[in-house]
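ASSEMBLY PREDICTION REQUEST
Request ID: AP-0331
Submitted by: J.K., bench scientist
Number of chains: two
Total residues: 519
Priority: normal
Notes: Please return the full assembly, not individual chains.
Input sequences:
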Amino acid sequence: MTEKNILDKIKAECNASAPDNFSEIENQIKTSKKNRRNIILKISAAAAVIAVPFLSVIASQKFKPMGPEDIKLAEVTADTSEYTEETDDNSNTTKPVSEKETEESTVTVPHVESQMAHKTENGLKTELPPQSQSITKNQTQKESSHNIPSTEIIPTTTKKVHPDISDKPHTSSTRKPSHTTKPVVSSEIESPCHTILTTNQEISDNHTSQCITEHCPYETTSAAQGTQPCSVPQTLPKTDTTKECTVPVSFTGYHTECTTKECISEQLLSVNLIFAASQDDHSGNSKSKIYEGKDYNYIVTDYDLYNVQLNYSRHSETHSIDEVLKKTKLTIDDLIEAGLNATKIEK
Amino acid sequence: MEKEELNDIILRIQKKDTKALEKIYNDMKGCVYGLAYVYTKSHSDSEDIVQNTFLRVWSKADTYKKDNPKAWIMTIARNLSIDNINQGKRFTELDENIRTDDCYSKITDTDMLNTLLSTLEETEREIVILYSYGFSHSEISKITLKPYATVRWKYSNAIKKLIKISGGENND
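STATUS: Completed
Returned structure:
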């Protein structure tokens, strides 16, 4: 055979052996189009599956009104005495609204421009006024009813709340970025610290953001360590040199030790504002142990002035308060109330 | 099929014209099959590679740069063949298992291909297959990523072996 014959024969054999099934290829092309469409649909469906349960759970959450049994939670707050002591001198600066309130003391006067939540021992005051607020604690919880005694918000507080900072001009301060994205890991979460509002100047109606939240430089392992002074980082304005640290949040203590209603409520009432809404992810971590077997949707675990940590997902994601509110379609009030209800869970 | 015509076909494929794909499939399926066959030594695997090659042409037509459409397609086929080997899917022998599949009738007519498999090295086989389909040495060099001189030398050796085995005389 010549070279040409060989090459022709090879070519002929290849052509003869080659499959003649273009229809299969055509079918596969059509199938792949469908698959692509299906994949898109599946992705959309999966996204809906992820989103809908959470939203529906949140939406279906019924917020119980506060009852006397809830008010008792405040009794376990360990640090109220310090608050009281410090705020006694300033009691005139706050005006209780509730007529039934007997002893009221200003706990703190936290404020954040747009997304603030405030707490009292008998409940969480959830208004988010543009002005500074002072929150009072009703220490006669037994008199409380479902209607949470109102906490007075005085936009024109003029007296100093904390002696150390009384003379400081109350200027709007730069917020320090906080731990919004940190996972709730006990050893990593810094203790939020919030400023007692400096109130030696008049606060006009449009006066905003008089409080500074920052993290206490010290670490604590228990929620009941009381009020401690919090040194101010050098990056902060001098006007904020002295701050009052509420009970530093110890997630370690909370997650590993705080499994009772009292402990939880103590945490709630002693720390700043961080909300965490959570569902049991069955991950076996200490946090889920608190909720194990309970019918809950979310729980306020902790909060600070600037952040809400919403651990609703299986991955303990944290979210900003804006994101939480946007996702849940809830108000701050709703979250706080839900958190208080969540404290009813007792292991 | 001329190069310009092939380029037009690729452009039509880019616009998702299945008729264009069918045209290029009918024109090049033998070549693709032959190249796949010298790698996989399996008719069924080779058919799969043919199918996958043209599916790849269909899906990757957007990435084709106007160069040499045939060489592009053969490069795809070669890569898929090598992938197939790496995945351990090839049949090393044309054994009875292969002969019982649907390709049996075709296999009986592949004397020269079988001679190719048994006589030549892998590189020589693919060079001969490509050359038989009209690829120049330089094109084969690009497709196989072998130096031009190596392609020429290997082709020369391969064709001599085949002529000798077939009992013919070398016209070169």
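REVIEWER COMMENTS: The radius of gyration of chain A is 29 Å.
SIGN-OFF: pending second reviewer
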